[in-house]
Design brief:
50% helix; 8 helices; mainly alpha; disordered C terminus; 5 strands
Length: 279
């Protein structure tokens, strides 16, 4: 089936945000790794160089979100009024000064050292925290601007769009639902979440679930692995290397169309866990 205009815009938007995030994370990593001691002067230097770069990336992501919503609205014939990018709202969403937020990776490093870990391990823990903060700031920017843009349109609902890179079970299950624009339910649902949002036109009232097959298949895959699946997608049983009753954000789902259905893997098999990030 040929890709629709909306599908093309959605894919381009996801890739654009991904590139913004990757460039910014790479810059943050380079700054962190190039600091030999991570003393106070080093941290001050890192923050001075990095914070403006992250904030620029946040505004880029917000601007891209605006353009995406406007683009799919035109493609679907939905009325939409451009939403101005509110710099203060985008950059200050935490309610905490950026200088304080970007000191937290240093605190993570010092805490790790105080527990007896060696400097390379402590430095790596600090880097994981830094990467999480950078990724979260960029994701929150696109999400908050998307919310503003959709609320100035005639869209009634949005759906969560998956990137296809590392989709956790929580995100996959969420992608099978639709959400009211007016309720502003577009928040990232776990640290590192990179889902997008797509406005959809209502055709009657199909109900909350829009992809019952994927929802059922995902729960069936979880049940096959663990013996049961939580219908609320809240907790999973004990698993080697994870905390007891880990949550669905620790489980990665790869959806294969056809006879295989969803396949599962642990987040820790691929990248840093939430625990490693100090979250």
């Amino acid at each position: 089936m040929p890709r629709s205009r909306v599908d093309g815009l959605t894919a381009a938007y996801a890739e654009g945000v991904h590139q913004i995030r990757e460039r910014t994370v790479a810059a943050a990593t380079l700054l962190w790794q190039s600091s030999p001691t991570l003393r106070d002067d080093d941290i001050a230097r890192i923050k001075k160089a990095l914070i403006p770069r992250v904030q620029g990336a946040q505004l880029q992501a917000a601007t891209l979100a605006n353009a995406y919503v406007a683009g799919i609205a035109r493609a679907q014939g939905v009325a939409a009024v451009p939403a101005p990018v509110d710099r203060d709202a985008i950059l200050g969403y935490r309610g905490v000064p950026a200088d304080e937020v970007y000191t937290r990776p240093a605190v993570t490093t010092y805490t790790s050292l105080s527990k007896g870990n060696d400097f390379p391990s402590a430095k790596q823990a600090g880097l994981a925290r830094l990467v999480s903060i950078v990724a979260t700031d960029i994701q929150q920017s696109r999400t908050r601007q998307s919310t503003a843009a959709y609320q100035r349109s005639d869209y009634e609902y949005t759906i969560r769009t998956l990137t296809g890179r590392e989709n956790c079970a929580l995100c996959v299950i969420a992608s099978t639902q639709r959400y009211h624009v007016a309720a502003g339910e577009l928040e990232p649902i776990h640290p590192g979440c990179d889902c997008g949002q797509k406005g959809v036109k209502s055709a009657g009232d199909p109900g909350q679930v829009i992809d019952a097959d994927l929802l059922e298949q995902t729960h069936a895959a979880v049940a096959a692995k663990f013996g049961y699946s939580d219908s609320g997608a809240r907790v999973l049983p004990d698993a080697p290397g994870l905390n007891p009753l880990s949550d669905y954000a620790d489980l990665i789902v790869t959806h294969q169309h056809g006879e295989l259905g969803p396949t599962l893997a642990w987040r820790g098999d691929h990248f840093t866990s939430a625990e490693d990030l100090g979250l």
